[in-house]
Amino acid sequence: MPRKNHGTASPSPRLETRSCEQCTVRDICLPALLSPEQLAEFSKVVKRTEVLHKGDYLYRVNEPFSDLFAVFTGFFKAFVVDRHGSEQITGFYFTGEIMGLHALAHRSYQYHVVALNTSVACRIPYSEYKRLAAKFPSLYTRLHDIFSHELIRARFSAANLTATQKVATMLYGISRRFQERGYSPFEYLLPMPNTDIANRLRLASETVSRIFTRLAKQKIVTVDDRRVKILDMERLADLSPHNLYLLDHRPMPDNVNNGSMTRHG
Amino acid sequence: MPRKNHGTASPSPRLETRSCEQCTVRDICLPALLSPEQLAEFSKVVKRTEVLHKGDYLYRVNEPFSDLFAVFTGFFKAFVVDRHGSEQITGFYFTGEIMGLHALAHRSYQYHVVALNTSVACRIPYSEYKRLAAKFPSLYTRLHDIFSHELIRARFSAANLTATQKVATMLYGISRRFQERGYSPFEYLLPMPNTDIANRLRLASETVSRIFTRLAKQKIVTVDDRRVKILDMERLADLSPHNLYLLDHRPMPDNVNNGSMTRHG
DNA sequence: ATAACTTATTGACCAGGATCAATGTTTGCC
DNA sequence: GGCAAACATTGATCCTGGTCAATAAGTTAT
Fold first, then answer.
1. What's the CA gap between B105 and B65, in Å, rounded?
2. Cα–Cα distance between A254 and A119 in angstroms, integer?
3. A122 versus A11: which is more confidently predicted?
4. Residue to substitute from A200, A245, A263, interface B, most B β-carbons within 10 A
5. Which residues pair with B79 in a beta bridge?
6. Are B102 and B110 in contact (CB under 8 A)?
């Protein structure tokens, strides 16, 4: 019963080269720390996938790993299928975010990744990435930062929050991500259905629905058919322990803080 | 009320150099992929902390980041303190495991880390690490693998399991980690109190206690005053969705699998 | 050894969220 | 445009695991 068909995949994506230089999420993405000249060189190894439609797979569990991906346009979700055949969403990806990091250790992808709607990804061959990173160490710095951010973000999923806190954190987090990308943090369209949000938060979709209506009654957020309007950002932030989930993806300057480390406060 | 004193910290650890060459967890640790000559060079930048006792801090939240640490002997736990002052354990570290990865993005440590008992850590200055990694790229490979493993492991905490599954997974996971290090997977001493396990699993300690007695009745595992005896590894593994949490820390050979990536199965 | 404290065990009760069910609403498709 | 399928909403009921409480048993210091 829990078989889910994410649409038939589109024909094998044709690759197409274009540059990172005028990409709007360049400063969030992997090459964020590169100089213009370095960026030009990096840009050459990046190929775009063809347009993927809702439900199309970017990659599947157990496929051999060779490339990292960045979201160019649209949105993706990652998930695994448990032994009972039902899917467990492990994350959503917004533009500029990197997919495939979990594949490095096993040399194969550990999640399925599908497009949530019409989307394009940038394919970054890992071998090319390493070649360039040897020349431009800030590429390593940035990758480590992204890894490190992902680890901290993973803690969010681990903190035991109430259902309301989970939902608030999700809405607040998405708001922040839109804001980072230059969109209004107060009003946005959810890229995924309610059920996906519930799944990601490990809640029943009924529970999420109930919380939406409750948040609307409290005049904090309204969610009407995927359209989110945040009426009271203040109180929304209060509901979400976002100190646990601060996901400012903007990179820090590439110099190591080596202040002296005193132990035992 | 929730203030917790992890013992008074010991005097500032005196550093002491010894080599990685004869370390028993060398093949699990950061320099796992290095050749003997490379290892000798790596070994020179590693300093040991002095002996830390139960409750001593290795580092604290918000201290500026400069070093990665590896567990040399003993066990450590990482945790944060939430706004109500109670601690939330985010992980346990066994010998050879790397601590501080979450600090890279923020240039400051994001967790508190304390010794669970008499322990020693290896201090690896990140700047030195990067200098050597530029010469020995397999150091980068290994770090990325460890990062990648951590991300996958983090998924475990996110999967919504029943209390029994959580406890079983923990006991099974610790068994595996002991086995990797050459100890019996069937009988071991828990390095942490019951309450810490409950905390880590986001369960009430009463619940963990009840599950221990139930597992004993079923003749699967007995836990008697921290001494764990696994009577039926088979059934324990069945209880733990370890497909979600396979943590084989042994590194893979340092060559990138670049098999052709076919999309849509 | 005794006191004071921390940790473990077991029971009784409670509550948050899951499940089941019924109905309404969109969306995609021919 | 109309049908089917997916998605959303609301209510009723149930159950896992949390909380509170009492006791026991280790652990540490004096």
1. 10
2. 31
3. A122
4. A263
5. B89, B112
6. yes
pLDDT score, position B81: 87
Which residues 90-149 of chain A have a CB within 8 Å of chain B?
90, 101-108, 110, 125-127, 130, 133-134, 137, 140, 143-149
The answer to whether some atom of strand C lies closer than 7 Å to the beta carbon of B212 is yes
Q: Which of A66-80, A151-165, A236-250 has the lowest average pLDDT? A: A236-250
DSSP A255: -
What is the per-residue pLDDT for A22? 87
Alpha-carbon distance A260 to A240, whole Å? Answer: 34
DSSP state, B148?
H
φ, ψ at A205 (rounded to 5°): -65, -30
Q: Where are the alpha helices (DSSP H) in chain A?
A: 36-45, 126-135, 138-158, 163-180, 194-201, 205-217, 233-239
A264 inside 8 A of chain B by CB: yes
Confidence at residue A10, expressed as pLDDT on a 0 to 100 scale: 42
Q: Give the closest-approach CA distance of B61 to chain A in angstroms.
A: 11
By C1' distance from the Cα of A196, the closest nucleotide is: D7
For residue A231 the two structure tokens come to 């009426």
Interchain contact, A265 vs B110, CB within 8 Å: no
Nearest to residue B190, comparing CAs of B227, B222, B221?
A: B227
For A78, name the nearest residue in chain B, comparing CA atoms only.
Answer: B155
Arithmetic mean of pLDDT, A179-201: 95
CA B71, distance to chain mean position in Å, is: 8
Q: From CA B161, how far away is CA B169, in angstroms rounded?
A: 10
Chain A residues whose CB is inside 8 A of the B265 CB are 9, 57, 60
Give exposure, B227-253, as e/b (b: 16+ Cβ within 10 Å): ebebbeeebbbebbbbebbebebebbe
Q: From the CA of A158, how many Å to the C1' of D7?
A: 28
User: What would the pLDDT profile of B228-240 be if each residue is shown by its tens digit?
Assistant: 999 999 999 999 8
Average pLDDT in the B33-38 region?
Answer: 96
Token pair for A265 = 């406060």
